[in-house]
């Protein structure tokens, strides 16, 4: 079946009020001038979710957080609950990004618990997974992403409340990307895992994004690969022209 592409920007820990709002306004203007060939999601830092959501309201641009806690409230200093993101106008949340897995010790079980909380709050989760360079070199890519897929998704996962982002850790922010054949192999394996774990009908509708050094010059090629249903974009999402060129490349 034809899955509508999703192009998602992960701003990471970048942006103060003025530049965050300006970037969000610029993306919203592009979408309004549309029609955009893809669904468009921007994920600012938690501090900007409120303002960015207000800025893009009514434009068709969706807003997401970059992480949430596994419980909805309580003694968790510095954390943000899924319901809080939802309350600010977010519809999505990125979970299990490799920077969280590496820098904050998040495991598949952590990601699964967070996804459960996000689903309960009514958020769509963008669950990131991908192999390290050492795992790829050891020939373990497929087994690693298959177990991340199986172990990171809670029961109740479906194609409406979940998006998968395959992000090879070694490709994030490095300018390096896997070959088209390597991307195709992983996406096909993830589609097969989805069919096994979630059933064929869900697998057929589930969006599986590619992320890792996607930019205007390689986006068209990456987005044309079978089973690639869009992109999760880091660095190139911080410049509206680059981000928009990637949205256009999904046409
Ligand atoms: C990311 O952090 O999700 C990402 C894909 O980053 P970049 O596009 O900068 O590689």
Written overview of the protein:
44% of the residues lie in helices and 15% in strands. It is of the alpha/beta class. The chain has an eight-stranded parallel barrel with strand order 1-2-3-4-5-6-7-8, surrounded by seven helices. Helix 1 packs parallel to helix 2. The chain starts with 5 loop residues before the first strand and ends with a helix. The model has no long low-confidence stretch (mean pLDDT 97). Residues 10, 167, 172-173, 211-214, 232-236 line the site of phosphoenolpyruvate.
Span from first to last CA? 16 Å
Radius of gyration, in Å, reads 17 Å
The whole-number mean of residue pLDDT values reads 97
- Count helical runs: 11
Helix content: 40-55%
Q: Report the principal-axis shape.
A: globular
What's the number of extended β-strand segments? Answer: 8
As a percent range, the share of strand residues is 15-25%
Major β-sheet annotation: 8 strands, parallel, barrel
Tell me the series of helices and strands, N- to C-terminal. Answer: EHEHEHEHHEHHEHHEHEH
Q: Which small compounds were modeled alongside the protein?
A: phosphoenolpyruvate
Low-confidence stretches: none
């Amino acid at each position: 079946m034809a899955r509508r592409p999703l192009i998602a920007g992960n701003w990471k820990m970048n942006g103060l009020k003025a530049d965050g709002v300006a970037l969000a306004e610029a993306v919203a203007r592009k979408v309004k001038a549309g029609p955009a060939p893809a669904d468009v999601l921007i994920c600012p830092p938690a501090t900007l979710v409120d303002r960015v959501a207000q800025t893009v309201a009514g434009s068709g641009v969706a807003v997401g957080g970059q992480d949430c806690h596994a419980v909805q409230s309580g003694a968790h200093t510095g954390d943000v609950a899924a319901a809080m993101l939802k309350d600010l106008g977010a519809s999505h949340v990125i979970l299990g990004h490799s920077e969280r897995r590496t820098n904050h010790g998040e495991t598949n079980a952590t990601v699964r618990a967070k996804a459960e909380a996000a689903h309960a709050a009514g958020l769509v989760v963008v669950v990131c997974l991908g192999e390290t360079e050492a795992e790829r070199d050891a020939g373990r890519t497929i087994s690693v992403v298959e177990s991340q897929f199986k172990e990171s998704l809670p029961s109740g996962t479906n194609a409406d409340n979940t998006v998968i982002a395959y992000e090879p850790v070694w490709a994030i922010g490095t300018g390096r990307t896997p070959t088209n054949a390597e991307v195709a192999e992983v996406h096909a394996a993830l589609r097969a895992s989805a069919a096994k774990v979630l059933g064929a009908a869900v697998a057929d509708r589930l969006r599986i994004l590619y992320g890792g050094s996607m930019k205007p010059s390689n986006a068209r090629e990456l987005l044309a690969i079978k089973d690639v249903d869009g992109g999760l974009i880091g660095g190139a999402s911080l410049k509206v022209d680059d981000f928009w060129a990637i949205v256009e490349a999904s046409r």
